[in-house]
Amino acid sequence: MVGGDTTISESTAIARYLGVKYAPHLTPGPDAPNIAMYLQWLYYSESVIMPLMDNYVVETILLSPDRRNREMAARGLKLLNSVLGAAEAHMEDREFISGDFTVADTITGHAVIMSHRLGADFGKCLNLSAYADRLEARPPFIAAEAA
Fold first, then answer.
1. pLDDT per residue as tens, the chain (147 positions)
2. 80 in a domain, yes or no?
3. Nearest to 55 by CA among 38, 74, 42, 40
4. Which domain holds residue 111?
């Protein structure tokens, strides 16, 4: 994506740029009471959840069957389940990541939804399951998925 004279290729940077530039109501300002929580979860997903999910996808989907390593895939899924625990605890009594729906929900929500779809254990993650359901029920999500 090009923003001014800079090409932005990192997904969270793209999401944050689009929010700041075109949807400021989805990006808490520096003095907002939820700014720290917003930033924590905006970046937690890409720095903690997604690398584990990426490894799992490589070992179960992208590599040819003869090159896949079941132990690496199992370890990746186990670690993914572990780091989802922090998000599960955070979502206790919350509808969205940092109050109202924000750009952080597009990033962390994507990681949660894809983790679930890829087989992460949501049996004990009732908060994340409900969160994913809320996100998937939003009209913009339905429209994007249908496109």
1. 998 899 999 999 999 999 999 999 999 999 999 999 999 999 999 999 999 999 999 999 999 999 999 999 999 999 999 999 999 999 999 999 999 999 999 999 999 999 999 999 999 999 999 999 999 999 999 999 999
2. yes
3. 74
4. 30-146
